[in-house]
Design goal:
Structural class: mainly alpha
Strand order of the largest sheet: 1-2
Distance between the termini: 35 Å
Helix content: 40-55%
Radius of gyration: 18 Å
Length: 126
Amino acid sequence: MKPRTPKSDTEKIRDFQRKLYLKAKQEKEFRFYVLYDKIREPRFLREAYRRVKANHGSPGIDGKTFEAIEKEGVEKLLEDIKEELEKRTYQPSPVMRVYIEKANGKLRPLGIPTIKDRIVQMYARW
């Protein structure tokens, strides 16, 4: 028998989402309370960071790049986010406004949040 390889954060989160989905489908009257307690586990923030980084987005108004964040320590950033969310002191930063040209020559406004705020937004999607 082959030894089981440990599940990745992505697989664990997918399992968690699948369980929630099945519970909701099987018991239509069931209400989920206090899901926030369940998603406070570090794997959810790590996965949110991984997904945000995979999008290769630009830095927001704070100018912090993924390289700068990794140099300072990703785990420190994620721990700080977790603490701010738990203490309810998290405040999103202003969004950087840029304009991109459309095919017809007009400009379209685009808001770029900071990487930290994108992590929190991705985290909240669970």
